[in-house]
């Protein structure tokens, strides 16, 4: 699964770990996050995230 980085603060959403703060379980793809989900670090909306290139 692809990781996504917040363009505002640099937080990386990794589907392998999910978002424990937001009660998003591990294994949840970014595309499957609820519409109201926001960055746990800065509160930016999903539209402010960009897919991170695999290295």
Could you provide a short overview of the structure?
The chain is mostly beta strands and 55 residues long.
Write the layout of secondary structure elements.
Elements: E1 4-6, E2 12-13, E3 49-51
Structure in words:
The chain has strands at 4-6, 12-13, 49-51. The protein is mainly β and 55 residues long. It has a three-stranded antiparallel β-sheet, with no helix packed on it. Strand 1 (4-6) and strand 2 (12-13) form a beta hairpin. The model has no long low-confidence stretch (mean pLDDT 95).
Radius of gyration over C-alpha positions, nearest whole angstrom = 10 Å
Supply the helix-strand structural class. Answer: mainly beta
Query: What would you call the quaternary organization?
Result: single chain
- H and E order: EEE
Total DSSP E strands: 3
């Amino acid at each position: 699964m692809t990781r996504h980085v917040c363009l505002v603060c640099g937080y990386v959403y990794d589907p392998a770990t999910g978002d424990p703060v937001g009660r998003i379980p591990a294994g949840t793809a970014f595309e499957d996050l609820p519409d109201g989900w926001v960055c746990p670090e800065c509160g930016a909306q999903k539209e402010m995230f960009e897919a991170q290139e695999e290295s």
